[in-house]
Amino acid sequence: MNARVASHSKAAAGRATARTAGVIALVGAATVSALGGFARADPQPTRAEVEAKVDRLHHEAEEAVEEYNGVAEKADRTERALDDLRDEAARKTARLNDARDALGSFATAQYRSGTADPTVQLALSAEPEDYLSRAALLERVGNRQAAALEGVGRQLQEVEQVRTKADDRLAELTDARAELKRRKSAIEGKLAEARRLLDTLTAEQRDAVLGTDGHGGAGGAAGDRAARDAARGPVQAPNARAARAVSYAQGAVGSPYIWGAVGPGSFDCSGLTQAAWGAAGVSLPRTTYTQAAAGTTVPRSALAPGDLVFYYSGLTHVGIYAGGGQIIHAPRPGATVRYAPVDSMPFVTAVRPA
Fold this sequence. Notes:
Helices cover 65% and strands 8% of the residues. By secondary structure, the protein is α+β, with helices and mostly antiparallel strands. It has 2 domains: 47-198, Helix Hairpins, CATH 1.10.287; 218-353, endopeptidase domain like (from Nostoc punctiforme) (endopeptidase fold (from Nostoc punctiforme)), CATH 3.90.1720.10. A hairpin with a 2-residue loop joins β3 and β4.
């Protein structure tokens, strides 16, 4: 190959290499451009955004918890009614079996005696007067037998009625348990989502979010001490039971919120108020919306220690008034029983338990 040909070959090779590099660069740029939307991560939510979302999820979970508590209360009542019906069915069945045994013994005795036709007995009787007295006795026995038969039939009906009621209660209980499972799944799903959001924060940010009660009140021991001091004002409980209920709630401060819990070591919001008034000898229903009907309504301006204070349009949260403009409540998952200003949430109504 002469020098001129060699020079041409090198130039051609250089141009080919340049073209290849350019194509690769263009393809790479196009690829980055096409995939750019996938390569860029979504911006991280701010602490304020996470806190707002977590509070919303916890509030929705609390609504679901109160619905769960209502279904659980119904399931408990249904289960107790079912147990009572089963006991009643067992007692009635035992009485029925006794009546059947007695009737069977009487029938067996008649069969063995080979009772003949009454006219034949009269014809063969040496002493007609004796026969007539025996005939009257047989008639009375026959009447008793008829009454026994009627009693057995009646008891059969009663047993069947009780068993039908028990079957109905069992069906109700089965439905309630299925509903509890669905509501539990919904609650745990919302709480899991809240935890995922919290995990996007730094440890310091997460602690700051969890330090609030999620309802507008500040958390922490210092806040509780200040609120406790404020609650020790001149306001007195209207009666000894109310004072006892407040005392119980004060003793629960610092206990963890656990949904579905009614104490003594953990509580949800309605579980705390139920336990506090239960310690005072007053039985409250289980849920916020049923507790709201368990006493005399009092205006916001007339609140006294021991009154139940309800918040949000669906009556989904409750605290117990401690005086000094403070309530004690179980705020939400991740928080503890604490004091909060009575106006820290949307006030709906207040009730003074009987």
